[in-house]
Amino acid sequence: MPSPSMLSPAAQRPLTVRDALALPPLLAGSPEILAGEAELDRPVRWVHIAEEADTSALLEGGELVLTTGLAFRHSPELTAAFLARFRTAGAAAVVVELVDDDGAPDTAAIDVLRGAAQSVAAAPLILLTRRTRFVQVTEAAHKALMDRQVIRLERARQVHEVFTALGLENAAEADIVRTTAELLGSPVVFEDPAHLVLSYAAVQENPIKLLDEWAERSRFVGYLNHTGFGTGGERWLQTPVGLKGQRWGRLVAPALAAPATDTGDAPGWDFEDALQVLERAGQALTMARMAGRDRRELLFQARAGLVQDLRQASPPSEAEAVARAGALGLSSAAACVPVVARLDVAGREGGTDPSDATAVQLRERAFLDALQDWSRQERQSILAASLRAGSVAILLPLAALELEDSMLHRLAAGARSSGVGCTIGVGKADRSLLRAARGLDDADQVAETAATLGSRNRPFYRFGDVRLRGLLSLLGGDPRVKSFAQAELGPLLEPLDREGLELLAAYLEHAGNMSSLSRARNISRQALYARIRRLEHRLGFPLDNAESRTSLSVALLWHSLHRS
Questions:
Q1: What CA–CA distance (Å, rounded) separates 149 from 504?
Q2: Which residues are bridge partners to 461 per DSSP?
Q3: Are strands 32-35 and 46-49 parallel, antiparallel or unpaired?
Q4: pTM of the complete model
Q5: CATH topology of domain 479-561
Q6: Per-residue pLDDT reduced to its tens digit, 173-203
Q7: Domain with residues 330-472, CATH architecture
Q8: Among candidate residues 291, 321, 280, 282, the one with its CA nearest the CA of residue 303
Q9: Which CATH homologous superfamily contains domain 11-143?
């Protein structure tokens, strides 16, 4: 695929009046701008030599008119009429050479032209005070125009190749957006119909500035069903994404706004090239959508990407994080709560086999869909994304810290309505979005630990709710805890004695009460005493000691949490 960085649109920008004045044949005439200096970036379509005002009827617009003014140079009225006719005909600029037969400046004619220049509006008026070979000017200008046309055709071919290659490679939306921005040399934003940012490429612009209050600004830029400038607001250049009659979003180049006047291209960029690139990009995004990605999937991918970025060792700044989250629909808030929902696995009602990746993904998708619907119905923004297989991360904004519990109860109710069983773990609320995002790891640990509880009767769990089980879950990777547990249970682990471990767990569950344990296991007390003595012999210490039972309880709990 051609490198987008090699396809700069500046190389094939239209020839402007300013460019023409820099051509050596015109520079030799000592050009002086008498009027219209602000319009020197008008595009020049062709060069035309004219001596009579009547020849203005031959113009089609955009011509650079060259004249010696022989028919009008000594009459202010004729000069003004000549300039007015060519201005009305759409000339890009009028260049007048005023020299006498000896090649010296014709001062009388120059004074007349200067006087007429005061009444000239819009189109630039340029005076040449040295004899100029108009044939050379025409030749040089036409060569420059043809060179640009060749470059433009080459540019079109390369743009076509770039987007064709992206389609063949089944490129992700983010890759298409980034390539579009590189081709335009300008920031590009891909948003959905609700003005949530699915993907963006800031190029050289500060992403915080680009995404600041994006949804609010974008709502005032009217949609178009074709590539062009939006109506109202900031009139951004845009192209629709989606099939006819089915709008899935739009691709916007906010830095490429409509010019303030109708005189032509905005300075510094090529309107036709930008239209071409943006339109091809919109088609590429539509094809990507037709290949199986729907609008919600794009939104989920964008949110998952942000959550992943926020949890990196080197995350974006707080300001950028807030701007990106806001562009994805997360409202500004006094604080944010990190929440993780761990979906039920096999063995629980409505669970699924965790080894079936497709089934897990479908359950995650159903759960995310339900959260999205709940968010819309409750008018409560959230940032929800897959954290890892079977776990969904949620950043829940709070208008006030006092509302934390009520909001969590509402969220838990919305999660239950999904029909997908889950255990919800909650981290510590924080006024910083970055710190709240880092708290997702703690919330995940709590959810994972709470999911192992025999009875789950709470709508959500915090670290204090999982008690010793939570502590051992957090310390599970500590080699000292592992050594302690293996030392306590060693004779039952190598080789693995499942029956012995089950008997020990039952004994500890009944707090060493042999009568209660005998009834629970439906065996005689004599047989039970014999089994306990054998268990004590294998372990190497008596079980009627309180400290021994405590140590064994901790070791067994660690083993149940970290069997893998």
A1: 86
A2: 425
A3: unpaired
A4: 0.57
A5: Arc Repressor Mutant, subunit A (1.10.10)
A6: 889 999 999 998 899 999 988 899 999 999 8
A7: 2-Layer Sandwich (3.30)
A8: 321
A9: HprK N-terminal domain-like (3.40.1390.20)
